Amino acid sequence: AQKITQTQPGMFVQEKEAVTLDCTYDTSDQSYGLFWYKQPSSGEMIFLIYQGSYDEQNATEGRYSLNFQKARKSANLVISASQLGDSAMYFCAMREGRDSNYQLIWGAGTKLIIKP
Amino acid sequence: SQTIHQWPATLVQPVGSPLSLECTVEGTSNPNLYWYRQAAGRGLQLLFYSVGIGQISSEVPQNLSASRPQDRQFILSSKKLLLSDSGFYLCAWSLTSGHTDTQYFGPGTRLTVL
User: Fold this and answer.
1) A33 to chain B nearest CA, in Å?
2) What is d(CA A1, CA B19) in angstroms, rounded to the nearest whole number?
3) How far apart, in whole angstroms, are the C-alpha atoms of residue B99 and residue A12?
4) Which residues of B touch A46 (CB under 8 A)?
5) pLDDT score of B110
6) 52-81 in A: which are within 8 Å (CB) of B?
7) Which of residues 20-79 of B touch A (CB under 8 A)?
8) Closest listed residue to residue A99, CA positions, set A32, A49, A1
9) pLDDT digits (tens, 9 = 90+) for A28-81
10) How many CB atoms lie within 10 A of CB A44?
């Protein structure tokens, strides 16, 4: 079974609208972390936001927020007021436990295109 | 602040030739280091990770090897490249002492094997 599922292979969004990118995860660990990364066409993987399983509040970083619903095992990324520069691939990733030999489990990604 | 460098940025190599990709991190000590490969339009595949000098863990049996001769240097090598080694190679670092163990990535090397 997939540990990280990103169900949207691609999305088109109008500039200035809000965007929600879906991510569901599967783990039996109580302690885990969830990450979102952005990969523009240049290829560099850019860290956006982190949510720990014990964090009581949803993480926020500027225009990025993470809608963390623990019971549903979802960690959706919300981008407010989208910009043309937000066009990129977006990856959700998970670190299981504290002794997980540092591995991240990656989703397949969502390609986001912002239309002017 | 910490920075991570990778070189070369682009490489075209014939099948059967050797490979050496280098990654260096500045501004931190004793980082965890990682090599990933990304095929076109796909997610990331972890190849190797290292928690210290000379300590390498391999995640995928393959034609590649990794070495960590210095604390902040990580090298990906091959003695004989295969066509299937083509891809985008990303190096990353993290700190175990950090709360999140967030991995930070370098700019990547795009390898084409012909």
Assistant:
1) 7
2) 35
3) 35
4) 105
5) 96
6) 52
7) 32, 34, 42-44, 46, 49, 51, 57, 59
8) A32
9) 888 899 999 999 999 999 999 999 999 989 999 999 999 999 999 999 999 999
10) 16
